[in-house]
Write a structure and sequence with these properties.
30 helices, 35% helix, 1011 residues, alpha+beta, binds pyridoxal-5'-phosphate, 37 strands, 8-stranded mixed beta sheet
């Protein structure tokens, strides 16, 4: 037996004798003490803690009692339970295997893994961390122990010790950072010392927080462990220490801090002045950490870990652009506390004074109409990513009426803030500021303005940028009780620059500026942007006039509705976007349950542009999923053609119209010569339904062969040939005139990519299917397949497959129908249609969705001979199929594909995407296969055993949506990511997809069971 075995056996015996627990022991990592994981035969787990010989008894006693205290006060908190020995002792002195005395105690094991190893660290999880920490602090509020008043370096109250050691930081810039933090801390000390002290955890770092949950289950905090650093201090020190770890390496530290502090506040309410201490104390804690590890590195020059471990803290301290004042406002707002002291008094005063302010425009504007520029109500600007000056100068012209005053809403999400400066990240689909924080007053340039109340000039300057403020003035005011607040006037004629100086007093009612024209006001239609702010902390330089929708909890509080200052009631000028919840409720009551909605938290989309979409708050999404807007959402040429035709006539195919033949000729020009006759219908479904009729009319037979998992539409006949529908639980089942063949999937199917004969082998499966139809007396009408099966999992059948199948079908007297709804019209890049890649000549080609770019349109094209078989004297008529509007729309779509080089774009951007996705496949074991062509792509996600990873796929799809990318999923087990964007997608969007996907696949990897 090794020494280690002897030791384990010794403590196993002790556990049995003293606690009556029979368990297997395995040693855990520990710096000084021995810790064992003890697993009982009932599946119950414990941590046996054997303290090092000679350890301070008070320290262990304090922890044991504190845990017991927490359990007694707040039994629901996820803290370890101290398991008492059979004699009721919670802390025992036992001899170790060498006869030395050891303090020994036992804790119940908590489930989960360390917070450090959990990704993503969502705001909801961080909120819960705060909540648990606050709950523990509340439970410990009346805990007393002699050991709490310890004199050690991790007591944040004593952080001043770093002053004496600062010299160890040799880099002057870094030393300055620490010196600044230290000075800030010193200034805070009187206020901090005045706070009551209590027992605190004092070390809620990433390794002392346990988290449960998997990809498919929500994550929850399952434990706050290790009270080894407990001491008595103001509770805010505890929170600041946790905060110092939470921000490191976090992509959005401000949001993380808001979640943490709000969570704590919900469990153990903080005061506003405590909240203000979070930021300086957080920095003090990081300074203590880096100074401490620098000293340790000096003591252990050969240990690289010491230096590596301080890198994230330095990185944060050196690069953070967080403004402490604005952060405090944010944290206060997140807790529902007033953002500045006196905020409530200011609100009350403004409300009381409403009606007594001098009219800003010199006259009463209470009857002025409002004009909405919202995402929902307005189409300004046409391109939500770029508003040229000519357009900005005309914004809202529909509300203009000979210079009368009209008002723009407060709290209105708008897309007119189109330029990259309004984005928070590098991508077009990055979060952006959209929500208006002021009220606009539109009228004629040159209109004079009068101060609503006495104020002092705080800023008077000219901001020249495109769509910036132009001339801008900020006045500082005081309420009668002396609380300061600010008003901003933007888009002014800068003539005031010669007259106004900072500090100058403007009396109530005094004329002080004029509306600028577009040449001087940032480029906008003449108006004043009028905004109220309760603080200027952190915003003087930029003064945001719009806020991000998800940050409105902060901006509504910092920049409240300024209506009162215009002598208006708040609701008159406040915008209320359509409530998504209401729409969802209506949807549930008005429609059938199987009208499905994407995402657990559905999206309400109100605008689109090319391959981007916008919800009611103006949040942008990259549309990597929808193939219907083939040439892009809201294409101006489609808008123009549709509007033009609707002004003229929209009739049907019973009358002649040149648009019909123009559309037919355009389609035929893209197809092989033998396809000569077009039928226009309303959808892919209707076209496939018609294809069945043609095949039957031509062959006189009924039987159809089709690959498994296919989809051809939603009507009775189309469902009968769609295994994806009829074979689902509750489906209508397989008709006896339909024979299924295995889908030609050479990744997961019967014949793999290593088999050179796989195309022929998959095709041979058609033989028994044909034979079976003949046996059943149906004969063979034909074969129908999506050329590249989409719902089957974005499959590209091996080349040669369709040629071999078509040969067999033709030989048996059947017709071959190519459903090109998904693959046609240039999506594949190298080919206009999928059947070209398979080098076959179909008898019937079906087109749908993309050909109308959203307008309901389906097309069937066939040979003259087949058309003649169908032409049996009974009229074929589809009322809306081939309407004048449809023909013009379809023609325009095909022209745009050519004119804008969209097929070439599909080839180039799709090629780039495919390459980058393949790089992800090499990096992430969860990616089993990457396949596709052009902008028809699939990423098959797998479990470690190679099986279909349905849960992972659902997770990835939802997380992509969190990152503002919409993608779909397909495949019999729904484990294939479907990337199928409008053909306008650009290289930078493809980059966004792969960068975000990489990040999410890392999360997937981190959730796999740890070895
Ligand atoms: C391959 C294929 N064929 C036909 C259809 C049916 O088209 P629609 O929904 O326009 O009727 C679809 C729809 O998803 C499809 O993907």
């Amino acid at each position: 037996m090794t020494k280690a075995d002897i030791r384990i056996q010794h403590w196993q015996t002790a556990l049995k004798e003293k606690w009556g627990i029979v368990a297997d022991l395995s040693p855990l990592d520990g710096e000084y003490d021995l810790n064992f994981l003890a697993l009982g035969d009932q599946g119950n787990g414990y941590i046996l803690k054997v303290m090092r010989a000679g350890c301070e008894a008070w320290l262990v006693d304090m922890q044991v009692r504190a845990f017991e205290h927490i359990t007694a006060r707040q039994p629901q908190l996820p803290c370890p339970i101290v398991v008492r020995a059979t004699d009721e002792a919670s802390l025992l002195t036992l001899k170790d295997e060498r006869g030395e005395d050891r303090l020994v105690w036992l804790l119940g094991q908590l489930p989960g893994r360390c917070y450090a190893h959990v990704e993503p660290k969502s705001d909801a999880l961080i909120h819960e961390v705060g909540h648990v920490l606050g709950g523990c602090a509340l439970a410990l509020a009346d805990f007393r122990h002699g050991g709490l008043d310890r004199d050690f370096k991790w007591d944040l109250m004593r952080a001043g010790w770093i002053d004496d050691e600062i010299i160890c930081i040799t880099d002057p810039a870094r030393r300055q950072i620490i010196a600044d933090i230290s000075a800030e801390f010193a200034a805070l000390t009187p206020e901090l010392s005045a706070l009551p002290k209590q027992a605190i955890h004092n070390d809620a770092n990433d390794y002392n927080i346990m988290v449960t949950g998997t990809l498919s289950e929500p994550r929850h905090v399952s434990g706050l462990i290790d009270l080894g650093d407990m001491c008595a201090a103001p509770r805010i020190c505890d929170l600041a220490i946790a905060a110092a770890y939470i921000v490191l390496d976090h992509p959005n530290p401000e949001a993380a801090l808001a979640a943490l502090v709000a969570g704590y506040h919900a469990a153990y309410p903080l005061t506003a002045s405590e909240v203000d201490m979070v930021w300086p104390l957080l920095r003090a804690r990081l300074a203590v950490s880096v100074v401490n590890s620098t000293l340790m590195a000096m003591e252990n020059p050969d240990d690289p870990y010491v230096t590596i471990s301080q890198a994230p803290a330095w990185q944060f301290l050196e690069s953070s652009t967080i403004h402490g004042g604005l952060l405090s406002a944010r944290l206060r707002a997140a807790c529902g506390l007033p953002v500045v002291d006196g905020a409530e008094r200011i609100h009350t005063w403004l409300e009381q004074q409403c009606g007594n302010f001098a009219p800003l425009m010199g006259s009463d504007i209470s009857d002025a109409p409002l004009g909405s520029l919202s995402v929902e109500d307005s189409t300004w600007p046409q391109n939500p990513f770029h508003m040229p000056l000519e357009e900005a100068a005309r914004v809202g012209e529909e509300f203009e009426d000979q210079g009368r005053i009209w008002l723009g809403y407060y709290h209105e999400p708008r897309l007119i803030y189109a330029e990259p400066a309004f984005r928070k990240g590098p991508w077009k689909a990055s979060d952006r500021r959209t929500v208006h924080l002021g009220v606009d007053v539109f009228t004629v340039a040159g209109t004079p303005m009068f101060a609503p109340l006495r104020g002092e000039v705080f800023i008077a300057e000219y901001r020249a940028g495109h769509l910036d403020y132009g001339g801008v003035i900020i006045l500082r005011h005081k309420t009668s009780q002396g609380d300061p607040f600010y008003t901003l006037y933007g888009h002014l004629d800068p003539e005031f620059l010669d007259r106004l100086q900072v500090g100058q007093v403007i009396e109530q009612g005094e004329e002080f500026c004029r509306l600028g024209d577009p040449s001087m006001n940032g480029g906008w239609a003449p108006h004043v942007h009028f905004q109220l702010a309760l603080t200027t902390e952190g915003i003087e330089a930029d003064w945001p006039g719009v806020g991000e929708p998800d940050e409105m909890y902060l901006w509504r509080a910092v920049c409240p509705n300024p209506a009162a200052l215009l002598n208006l009631v708040d609701d008159k000028v406040r915008y209320f976007p359509t409530e998504k919840a209401k729409v969802e409720k209506g949807r549930k009551s008005n429609f059938g349950g199987n009208l499905s909605l994407s995402y657990a938290d559905p999206l309400m989309l109100v605008r689109g542009w090319k391959h981007h979409l916008f919800d009611e708050w103006g949040r942008p999404y990259l549309d990597a999923y929808n193939n219907v807007p083939h040439v892009g959402h809201a294409h101006p040429r489609i808008q123009a053609v549709a509007a033009d035709q609707l002004k003229r006539i929209n009739s049907n195919t019973r009358y002649l119209h040149p648009a019909q033949t123009a559309f037919a000729e355009k389609i035929l020009s893209k197809l092989p010569d033998h396809l000569e006759v077009c039928y226009f219908v309303n959808s892919g479904t209707e076209a496939n339904e018609l294809a069945l009729r043609l095949a039957r009319a031509h062959t006189g037979a009924k039987g159809m062969v089709t690959p498994d998992h296919g989809y051809h539409g939603n009507t009775t006949g189309a469902v009968d040939i769609s295994a994806y529908k009829f074979n689902k639980p509750g489906g209508v089942g397989q008709s006896d005139w339909v024979e299924l063949v295995e889908i030609a999937d050479d990744y997961r199917g019967s014949f793999g990519r290593d088999d050179p004969d796989r195309a022929q082998k998959f095709a041979d499966l058609v033989d028994p299917a044909i034979a079976s139809l003949k046996d059943k007396g149906h004969g063979l009408a034909g074969f129908i397949a999506e050329t590249f099966p989409s719902v089957g999992g974005q499959i590209i059948p091996p080349q040669g497959y369709l040629a071999a199948v078509y040969e067999k079908i033709h030989a048996a007297g059947g017709l071959c129908i190519a459903d090109e709804v998904q693959t046609g019209l240039g999506r594949l890049g190298d080919h206009y249609f999928g059947f070209e890649y398979q080098d076959v000549l179909p008898d019937i080609v079906v087109m749908g969705k993309p050909i109308g770019n959203g307008h309901p349109l389906g097309v069937l094209v066939t040979t003259r001979e087949i058309a003649e078989s169908f032409d049996n004297g009974i009229e074929f008529f589809s009322t809306f199929g081939g309407s004048t509007l449809s023909c013009r729309t379809g023609f325009e779509v095909l022209e745009i594909v050519d004119d804008e080089g969209l097929q070439e774009n599909a080839r180039d951007v799709g090629g780039q995407l495919l390459e980058e996705l393949r790089a992800l496949q090499r990096k992430h074991p969860s990616v089993g296969d990457v396949r596709g062509m052009g902008l028809f792509l699939g990423v098959e996600l797998i479990n470690p055993d190679g099986s279909e990873a349905t849960d992972v796929c659902t997770y990835v799809k939802n997380r992509m949506r969190d990152h503002r990318i919409l993608i779909g999923s397909e495949g019999p087990k729904d484990n294939v990511l479907k990337i199928r964007p409008p053909l306008t997608i650009e290289a930078e969007d493809a980059k966004m997809i792969t960068i975000v996907l990489d990040q999410i696949l890392n999360e997937v990897g981190s959730a796999l069971p740890q070895p």
